[in-house]
Amino acid sequence: GDFMLDLHSPPNTTDYIYVYDEDTSPCSEGNGFSKFRSLFLPIFYCLVFVSCLMGNTLVLWVLITRKKITTMTDMCLLNLAISDLLFVLPLPFQAHYASDNWIFGNAVCKIMAGIYYMGFYSSIFFITLMSIDRYIAIVHIVNARKIRTATWGVLISLVLWLVAGFASVPNMVFSKEVVIEQSVECVPDYPPGQETWRIFTHFGINLLGLVFPLGILIYCYSRILINLQCVRVKNRNKIKAIRMIFIIVICFFIFWTPFNIVLFLDSLQIMHIINECKTSHNLALALQLTETISFIHCCLNPVIYAFAGEIFKAHIKKLFQSWIHVIQNTSSADSSSLFNSWHTQVRSNSESDRVL
Residues 20, 26: contact at Cβ < 8 Å? Predict the structure, then answer.
């Protein structure tokens, strides 16, 4: 979304003044890109929003009503679902914005930027915490019971939410409703000569959103793999565990690495290390595309982390069975009452015929 990317703002990469038409200028988005934004992005954002809402709401429903939160893993799943819902909450606003101007005002622009980044950071933090939790459970079995409690889960979750909140403050502060070329936009607007903040936020996303988490994921899961090879585990369970580890790491890498690489290149552009107009245009396109792809990750999180577990699947099965049972009872009760009312009407009609 444009809370993160300032594709509409005037280019900071060069001091040249271009006098070309908006659609032909080498540094403009181009008419083709504008059409892509206005046609494809609203549909895509809506699909991601609905998918993420359904999957993560189901996770919350099962955790709160069926499974009960008793372990660190449960706390991680609960917080990850909330994070993903926060991450996609601005998407309906973004869907409208992609096809038109920003119409929601400056306050909503800042609030949505804050929510977006809170969801972004916290989602990645809780994925990382789940990796550490699994590492402790498998590699440090002796101390696992003491550490992997719901109490520790609550305390660590509070700390992570605070860190996510602080990390998202600069983005919320600098996001503003601005008028650019007769168009109302919601973009990060940094004061002139203060490009340090833009670079700081970009590197913050790179470090907290990819470098540190991916490093922890690789360390934890490599140690788990070594441990699984040494410990005697049923071959079927071992293969399932190893497969799940690869899915988690590969999904994280595929969905977040391209965006972070492009964001890093954009930082080099801000520092004038990359200083070509065509490159600037390509980076703007790449940022939009890679960020759009990264949204899919929050739809996959419920499938990867919650629905893949045997206990969770059993709870979901029971939940659906109870829903089907309720629907069947309701429909049978409705049909029964309909039959009774029809039968009563027939009887009353026959009795009136007798009187006549």
Answer: yes
In degrees to the nearest 10, what's the CA dihedral of 258, 264, 265, 270? 150
Q: Return the number of other C-beta atoms located less than 10 Å from residue 168's C-beta.
A: 23
Torsion of CA 256, 259, 264, 266, to 10 degrees: -170
For the record, the structure tokens of 41 come out as 């992005």
Partners of 71 in the beta sheet? 149
Q: CA Rg, the chain, in Å?
A: 26
Considering only residues 92 and 333, tell me which one the structure prediction assigns the higher pLDDT.
92
Looking at the chain, which runs of residues are DSSP E strands?
175-180, 183-188
Q: How many CA atoms lie within 13 A of 328 on its CB side?
A: 6
- Ordered by start, the domain boundaries in the chain are 31-312
pLDDT digits (tens, 9 = 90+) for 113-155: 999 999 999 999 999 998 999 899 888 888 888 888 888 999 9
Percent with pLDDT over 90 in the chain:
38
The pLDDT tens digits of the residues spanning 270-294 come to 887 877 777 787 888 898 899 989 9
How many C-beta neighbours within 10 Å does residue 329 have? 10
Placement of tokens 């069926």 in the chain: 66
Give ∠ CA 144-157-139 in degrees, rounded to 5. Answer: 20
User: What dihedral do alpha carbons 190, 171, 214, 271 form, nearest 10°?
Assistant: 0
The Cβ of residue 295 has, within 10 Å, a number of other Cβ atoms equal to: 22
Q: Which two tokens stand for residue 79?
A: 């917080």
C-alpha span between 24 and 26 (Å, rounded)? 6
To 5 degrees, how large is the angle CA 70–CA 75–CA 77? 120
CATH number for 31-312: choose from 3.40.605.10, 3.30.420.40, 1.20.1070.10, 1.10.940.10.
1.20.1070.10
